Amino acid sequence: MSIHRTLVERLPDIPRWVEVRDLLLAGEGEILSLEIENDLALVLFDHESPCVFLVGDISETAFDIALAAVRSAQADVVAPLGDQARLIAALPGWTHDRLIVHTLNRPDRLPADRDGQVEWVDLNELRRHDLPADLLQELEDGGARGPIAAVRVDGRPVSFCYAGSQTEAWWDIAVDTLEPHRRKGYAGLCVAHLIRHMQAQGRYPVWQALQENPASWRLAEKLGFVPIDELVMFEAPQD
Fold first, then answer.
1. pLDDT of amino acid 1
2. Domain ranges of the chain
3. CA 4 – CA 30 distance, rounded (Å)
4. Are 212 and 56 in contact (CB under 8 A)?
5. Is-contact 189 183, C-beta < 8 A?
6. Which CATH entry fits the domain spanning 106-223: 3.40.630.30, 3.30.1070.10, 3.40.50.1260, 3.40.50.1400?
7. What percent of the chain has pLDDT over 90?
8. Residues 194-231: pLDDT tens digits?
9. Stretch 110-128: mean pLDDT, rounded?
10. Burial letters for 83-98: b for 16+ Cβ neighbours within 10 Å, e otherwise?
11. Is the pTM of this model over 0.85?
12. How far apart are CA 213 and CA 216, in angstroms?
């Protein structure tokens, strides 16, 4: 049995670890440090993001290993709140914020697509449209692993929702709308469409939003999500 599969069996399938478990299930992510004698303590490095995830009560040695990778790759960090103080001291120049984890408590608030505005889009279609490069890359990554729900305006897809990460029971909502088409309800329609699709597969949504991004967590609240957990996220300095 691979070490990634062993860790999948040790790490509980709960909303806060949806990204970590997604990496482990795919056999991805470099394990920089691992302690499993008692409670699981793990440092996992996702080179693609790049992002380093701290899981559990990691030792000072493991923390130093994590810091070396973070500094070398100018990576982001996602960690339990208990690690916030020592990360602040160790990473001057990195910005940090609380990452609020939400789950769906009021599905009755999800909008109904009575006019049939939401459809599935494939990557070939998206490549034909003049989308921002960073958004297209995110959609390429998400669409390679699952469906993308979209609203079109005048034939052009302008709002999107896909699963950023998936585990056996959970999936992480990724949603975006082109600037001229925001605040028109399109994002909520896309989210609701994908929620219903994923629920039929036995997976339930997780909405993660930085505390300093009220547009995200207010939309989550509007759609019936409630905060159930918090992590801390450090973002690397921008060039």
1. 55
2. 3-100, 106-223
3. 10
4. no
5. no
6. 3.40.630.30
7. 95
8. 999 999 999 999 999 999 999 999 999 999 999 999 99
9. 94
10. bbeebeebbeebebeb
11. yes
12. 6
Q: How far apart are CA 54 and CA 34, in angstroms?
A: 10
Complete edge-to-edge strand list for the sheet that includes strand 225-235: 30-35, 41-46, 51-55, 76-79, 225-235, 95-104, 204-210, 170-177, 156-166, 148-153, 118-121
Burial class for 231, CB neighbours closer than 10 Å (0-12, 13-18, 19+): buried
Please say if the pLDDT value at position 2 is more than 90. no
Rounded CA separation 219/238 (Å)? 27
Residue type, 190: C
Name the residue with higher pLDDT: 161 or 39.
161
CA distance 43 to 80: 12
Q: Which tokens belong to 219?
A: 């939309």
